[in-house]
Amino acid sequence: MQGILLPKRYVHQVFDRKLKRLQRERAARKFEQGHYFLHKEVANRLCERLQDIPRVLETVLDVGCGYGHIREALSYYHKGVKRIVETDIAESCVKATLEKSKSLSDGIETIGIVSDEEFLPFQKHSFDMAISCLSMHWINDLPGFLSQLNRALKPDGLFLGAMFGGDTLHELRVCMQLAEEQVHGGVSPRVSPFVQTSDVGSILSRGGFKLTTIDTDRLSVKFEDMFQLMRFLQATGENNASHLRGGYFGKKAFQLASDLYRQHYSDNEGNIFASIHVVYMIGWTPHPDQQQPKKRGSAQFSLKDLGKVVENIQPDESH
């Protein structure tokens, strides 16, 4: 019998991973603690969720470790960690995280590995928990990435994730599109696309995770002007890395975009604000002892009987 050759699953390459590595390397070499207030805040909010999980998770994988904010947060929010493996596409980020770990007297063994998040090198069932904080929004194949994490986690292992999504940088996107259309007569992606919150549950399921939980934060960050916002994005390695990013924009278009931004998205003092939409997610790898949904048809009560129950409830006339 002749076999059938199935094509590999096609993954649309939205982001230029080589460019993103260079951006993160450049940002790490010019690292300034004050630029990372947002990343630190999100890392703390993500790790706060561990306080609701009464389990000791000793071995941890931090994917896209950046500048060690998860390493620092775990030292405070989860005392049971014994070993943490820090990975990032940028070598300078891994070095920065390892350097930060030396200042933490928590006894956690910290190992650094330079690795692209899209190609994880870990063996099956290696970790109790995996965390990804503000790096997933640059990954082309999110279901594939999550499948790799699923494999690296032990059964009933925990995944914690946070990523920018939804309407993040909506104001910047709109103003740059309007300016480019007016000056150059056309538009191109000047701000990278973000995943919609409504798609995250499906992405987690395709990655093989169960008992998933998703919630969001909407933040508004103030800047002096659009140019300070763009310097912030560059300093934190969050600037555009889309393959479809436009080329020449020009001084005239930049100034028009800045004027539009201040006109439509500023406060009484003239400062502009940028919307940041953070999507938090929790998922567990499958395990036989996990709570399972009831089989179809196993219910003991029919919704058809609900009307009869409601009719038999008499109002309390004393109220």
TrEMBL record:
Q: Which Pfam families match?
A: Methyltransf_11
Q: Which UniProt keywords apply?
A: Methyltransferase, Transferase
Q: Which GO terms describe its molecular function?
A: S-adenosylmethionine-dependent methyltransferase activity
Cite a single GO BP annotation. mitochondrial respiratory chain complex I assembly
Q: Name one GO cellular component term.
A: mitochondrion
Which superkingdom?
Answer: Eukaryota
Record bears the keyword Methyltransferase: yes
Record-linked CDD domains: AdoMet_MTases
Where does the Methyltransferase type domain start and stop, copy by copy?
A: 61-160
Entries under PANTHER family matching the protein: ARGININE-HYDROXYLASE NDUFAF5, MITOCHONDRIAL (PTHR13090:SF1)
Q: What is this protein called?
A: Methyltransferase type 11 domain-containing protein
Q: Which organism is it from?
A: Galdieria yellowstonensis
Recite the lineage of the species: Eukaryota, Rhodophyta, Bangiophyceae, Galdieriales, Galdieriaceae
